[in-house]
Design goal:
Helix 3 runs antiparallel to helix 4, helix 4 runs antiparallel to helix 5 and helix 4 runs parallel beside helix 6. 71% of the residues lie in helices and 0% in strands. It has 143 residues and is mainly α.
Length: 143
C-alpha cells in the first residue's frame, strides 16, 4: 500500500510530468521504501529533464552504490567533477569514489570536507557522517 506522500507525489507528477524536482522527490521516497528499480527510473528521468539537478545526481549514484553497481555510480557522478572546488557535492563525489577504491583515509577526508561545505542539506550531512562512522568501524559493506 502506498503512503499518502507517494500518492501526492504521483498525483503532482500527473499534473506536471516535466517537473524534475517532483521526479527526484518521488525517486527519493521510493528509495527509502527500497523500491530501487522505480526509484532509479524516477531519478534518471529527473536528470534527463534537468541535468543540473546535482543533489539528484549524487543520490542516484548512492542508490546505484546501494545496489552494488559502482560503475553506474561513477558514471552518474562524473559531471559533478565540473563543479567548483568549493562545491560540497564535488567533495562528496570524490569521497564516495575513494570509498569504491577502498581508499578509506581519502574517503573520510573528502566526506568531512563535503560536510563542512554543505550548508544546504543537513540530512545529507547526517548521512555522510554515518557513512564516515561505518568506514571507521570497517562496516563499509553496509553502504
Amino acid at each position: 500500500m502506498e503512503s499518502s506522500e507517494l500518492l501526492r507525489l504521483r498525483a503532482a507528477i500527473v499534473r506536471d510530468p516535466g517537473n524534475a524536482e517532483l521526479r527526484y522527490l518521488l525517486g527519493a521516497e521510493l528509495a527509502q521504501r527500497r523500491e530501487y528499480p522505480e526509484a532509479v527510473a524516477q531519478m534518471r528521468t529527473a536528470l534527463d529533464i534537468n541535468p543540473k539537478l546535482h543533489f539528484a545526481r549524487l543520490q542516484l549514484g548512492l542508490l546505484y552504490l546501494t545496489m552494488s553497481q559502482p560503475d553506474d555510480s561513477l558514471a552518474v557522478w562524473a559531471p559533478l567533477e565540473d563543479l567548483e572546488e568549493t562545491a560540497a557535492l564535488k567533495a562528496f563525489k570524490r569521497g564516495l569514489e575513494a570509498l569504491i577504491r577502498d581508499d578509506f583515509p581519502t574517503c573520510i577526508g573528502f566526506l568531512q570536507q563535503g560536510i563542512h561545505l554543505n550548508k544546504q542539506n543537513a540530512t545529507l550531512n547526517d548521512d555522510m557522517s554515518q557513512l564516515i562512522e561505518r568506514v571507521r568501524d570497517g562496516r563499509t559493506s553496509e553502504t
